[in-house]
Amino acid sequence: MWAAFQTYSFPVSRLYYVHDLEHGAIVFVYRCNDAGCPDVVQGLQAASDAIPDDPLCAAGGEGVRVRSVITPDPLLDVPVAAAAWGWTYKADCVDLPTLTQFALDHYGKGPEDLCTQGDPNPLPAQ
Fold it and tell me: Is residue 17 within a helix (H) or strand (E), and if so which, with residue range?
């Protein structure tokens, strides 16, 4: 299984979101302190929102606009990261222009090019 293409408030198991990468998704991850970081989540959401509507997702008729996942990941070695199949992006903060460009450059390039909704209740990270 893979995680549904959406934003999560809890850390999704990496086993799930790596499978999302295989489907061509961009996975946006972040590490915050206990107080949270709504500004970081908002920046990651803006980068995801900048990805144009995916015709493959629209054709699936499942209400998915793009293949992206946003999730906290307490195991990150940086505050902000993004991943695509074969590519990673790491940063100390959200830099919207470079993060968006990463997403646009690497979106939809996984070995299984499909947009079928995954599990909306994936296992949390352990």
Answer: helix 14-22
Q: Is residue 65 part of a domain?
A: yes
Structure tokens given for 97: 């222009």
User: CA of 29: how far to CAs of 55, 57, 74, 99, 119, in Å?
Assistant: 25, 22, 9, 12, 18
Q: pLDDT (tens digit, 9 = 90+) per residue, 32-78?
A: 987 789 999 999 999 999 999 999 999 999 999 999 999 999 999 99
Burial 4-24 (b: 16+ CB within 10 A, else e): bbeebeebbbbebbebbbebb
Domain count, the chain: 1
Report which DSSP code applies to 7: B
Chain centroid to CA 113:
16
Residue 19 lies inside a defined structural domain of this protein: yes
Q: DSSP state, 109?
A: -
The C-alpha atoms of residue 44 and residue 42 are separated, in whole angstroms, by 5
- 64 in a domain, yes or no? yes
Rg (C-alpha) for the chain, rounded Å, is 13
Give the SS3 label for residue 88: strand
